[in-house]
Each structure stands twice: as structure tokens, then as C-alpha cells.
Amino acid sequence: MIKTVLENKEKYQPGLSIDCVIFGFHDNQLKVLLMKTRYDDSWSLPGGFVPVDQDIDQAATTVLRNRTGLDGIFLRQFSTFGRVGRNSANLSKVVLDFYGITEEEGLWYSSRFVTVGYYALVDFFKSAPASDGKSGYAEWVDHNDVPNLIIDHKEILDKALETLRMELNQVPVGYNLLPEKFTVPELQKLYETILGKSLDRRNFLRKITAIGILEKLDEKKSNVAYKAPNLYRFDLEKYEEVLKNGITQGW
Amino acid sequence: MIKTVLENKEKYQPGLSIDCVIFGFHDNQLKVLLMKTRYDDSWSLPGGFVPVDQDIDQAATTVLRNRTGLDGIFLRQFSTFGRVGRNSANLSKVVLDFYGITEEEGLWYSSRFVTVGYYALVDFFKSAPASDGKSGYAEWVDHNDVPNLIIDHKEILDKALETLRMELNQVPVGYNLLPEKFTVPELQKLYETILGKSLDRRNFLRKITAIGILEKLDEKKSNVAYKAPNLYRFDLEKYEEVLKNGITQGW
User: Fold this and answer.
1) Which of A228, B55, B87, B129 has a CB 3.0–4.6 Å from the CB of B138, allowing a cystine?
2) Looking at domain B184-245, does it have CATH number 1.10.10.10?
3) Domain B5-167, CATH among 3.90.79.10, 3.40.50.1820, 3.30.70.100, 3.40.50.150
4) Are A229 and A185 in contact (CB under 8 A)?
5) Among A72-81, B96-105, B233-242, whose mean pLDDT is lowest?
């Protein structure tokens, strides 16, 4: 994975990296995809560099696929992080030794890297990361139980979560994260899990209904002893429309 | 302004630039601040490079001050643009001649520059740009009458406007853009100008009142012959609060 100065100079945009915050939801759990290195047990976001022949959006997809095996995920750019000295000046001896490169060969990594943050929300049950790689492996970690991360990756993760929560006010969420037919309480649980707080049942029903993306089915949830709740599915045409134009009718 | 390869290599982050989209509002006009070069009459957004010893947010402020003389403006980062080949491969002969540098000295500019976009909304009447510089001058241009811009600057401008319009749904706008005391129709006109469409009067009144940032004064607008409208001012404490937490109470 790691390359020497000269190889990198030709291949990658200098001083620029990509970091991906992949949130995974399944069965009322919100997780985040992290990388654990093999050489020093540190945790980080899946990230990498920008090939000179790739647009940054494309590079983000490539980075994610190369690092984790995940493919076909729609990544949204959310913010760029570029504080002076955000990455450490030099690669540590542990890293140099691990890759068998000299200090000079590692120099390419010593300048400031400005990093473009991308995020996505997927069903982690359907999105098993490739668990193997030379430098490390990817793992789904509960978002409430995130270990120490390298550099400013915690800040990047927090900003992504803030963006995701803000996005709940702007676009519908849920398609591909819930079963095809679901109850309103199940949808509410998704929102509560992302927001990290409980919501008023009536209020939620009123607001979610007002968006107009739910189609009430003539079916009730089975296997429920008492007062079986109604099943719904997304009206995909309206869902797409609201995804495009936003939830708020605006001004 | 333009420097040779070696000077730049030491001073600036390679392959990275900043572009600022400064919207100016005054008296129902929405303008945007553009730079016109002296050597080829091309128009562009005010932009520049990122000094190695500055955070990117700080560099954005520096760029804006150096290029336009505008200072003390709060810039928000909104998106980063990094398509392959977005900037042309080499400086044109006109530019090289203008600055009196050789093609080799200009090489630093020939790689892809990934650019971080920042935007702001200010009162253009209070924010007179410095009209002078070696390479060009800054000018307020009506946002409906933007000339051809270099590279992908039109795309950057459009994305900034889209972000600004989206922001109207999230945070209050108006402080520093309207007189201290204003009427609701004046505030509505501000929203209409930014959104580029007219709004229903009653609907606007209802929505803007619901946000809770307006304080109704015991005064009417003078110099109005008939049915003088009420004057309002922003309740700054609540304004700040909503600015921090967002307009929508959310879920």
C-alpha cells in the first residue's frame, strides 16, 4: 500500500488525501467503518491518496474499494480539513520498518496533507468489508464506542455525523436500510438511532406522513401478539422526488 | 502576485487553491464579487493559494483580503472541486509575458489544482473592494449578469448559490444586510432576491414569525403615505441561538 517518494510523486496529487466516514445501520444499531493497522494497532478512517488521473470524487470511491472491498457506495463530499500540522511530520520508525522503506523514501508523507472528507450511510449487514489487507483490516465499530483515532479523524467523524443528522431535515432516509415493508415505529427507531435521542411518537408520525413518501399497505405486521402495527413501504417515485428537491417546501 | 516555481514551492501547499464566492446584498440587489484580470480581460472568482504555514480557513481569509481588500468577512467552506484537468495545463503566453517569467518558471501552475470553495453573504454597500491590484481588480457584478468565468468558476459560483439558498432553510439571514429597523416586506424582499422567486406574503409572515427571531416594534415605517407597515428588529439573542441550532426544530 505504501509507496516510496518517487512512485508517489508520479502517481498521486501531492499533499492531498481522502477520508471516508461510512456509517452502517442495521437492526437499530449505528456503526462506523474503521481501519485497524497491523503494525501499531492504531485506528483510523479508511483513507488514501488521489491518483493524478482521477477526479477527487472518483478517487474517494477507489480509496474505499481498495481499503475495504466495499463497492458501489454513493459517497457524498462533506468537508475538507486542512489545519497546519494536522498530520505528523514524519512516518514513525514502526511504519518505515513495517514497509521496509528508508526515511528518505518516506519523505513524501511528511508534508501537510489536506484531506477531503466523504461520507455514506449503508446497511452494514449487506456491506461486509473485506477483512484483509497488508497494512490493516476494516471493522464495523459501534458509533458510541469509537476508540482513539489517528490525527484529526475523530473530528472528521464528528463532522460527518453532524452532517448526517442535518441531512435528516433535508432528505428522506431509510430506503435500503429497512426491510421493504416496515412499520412506522421501525422507521422512527432508525431516526432515533441516527439522532441519538428518542422522539415523540405522534409528532414523528405527523412529520413523516407530511413528507408524503410513505405508502400505507393493507397489511399488518405478523408475529405480533397484540395490536399489530400497519405495514408501510416507500413510494419510490415520491421518495426520489423528495431526495432531489428536499423535504422542506422551503420559503 | 504570480511567483516562480521555486518561490512557490517553498511558500505554498502544492496543487491546492482557494476560491471565494462573495455574495453582496443591498437594496434588493444580489451581486457577486468577481476579479477582472488586466492582461486578458478574463473574469474569475477571487482566489489564491494556501501558504504552508496557514490553515485552509485562514488562507481563505488571507486570499480574500489580498485580492480584494475585504477584511473581517466570515467565510464558510462549502465544497471542494477537483476534476482532472480542471485548470489548464500551462500558463498562456499572455500571462507569462505579463509577469515577465519563463515557461519553466511558470511550471508550478501547470499541475492540477484542487480548489476549496468558500462563500459569504455581505452588504456590498458597506464592503467596498479595493479596486486596484497589479494583476486585476475586483468588481461587484449582478448575479443575473455574470460574464464568462475562467476554468470551472461558474460551476463553483452556482454551487455556492445553491448552498446559500439551502441555508435559508437552516439558519436566519438578514442581520447586517437590512437596516436595524425593517418591515416584513423588506425582509421578504431579501429572501426573494436570494431565492430568485416571489413568495406568498401570508405564508412568509407565518413562517418567519414561527422562527421567533423578530421583535415587533411600537413604530411604523414613516414616509409611507398609506397603511404604513410595522417596523421590526431582530431579537439578537434568539437570532444567535437559531444561528447555532438551526431553524427546524428537526425531528
Assistant:
1) B129
2) yes
3) 3.90.79.10
4) yes
5) B96-105
Cα–Cα dist A31/B46, whole Å: 41
Contact of A245 with chain B, judged by CB distance below 8 Å, is answered with no
B79 contacts A77? CB cut-off 8 A? yes
Task: State the sign of the Cα–Cα–Cα–Cα dihedral B234, B237, B238, B243.
Answer: positive
How do the domains of chain A map onto residue ranges?
Answer: 5-167, 184-245
ipTM > 0.95 (yes/no): no
CA nearest to B245 within chain A: A166
Q: How confident is the model at residue A3 (pLDDT cuts 50, 70, 90)?
A: low
Give the closest-approach CA distance of B81 to chain A in angstroms.
8
Give per-residue pLDDT as tens, B86-145: 986 677 787 778 777 788 777 777 789 999 999 999 998 888 776 566 778 899 999 999
Name the residue among A50, A79, A251 with its Cβ closest to that of B77: A79
Question: What residues of B are in contact with residue A83 (Cβ under 8 Å)?
Answer: 55-56
Q: In terms of Cα–Cα distance, which of B14, B85, B53 is closest to A13? A: B14
Q: Are strands B12-26 and B47-51 parallel, antiparallel or unpaired?
A: antiparallel
Distance from the A38 Cα atom to the nearest Cα atom in chain B, whole angstroms? 31
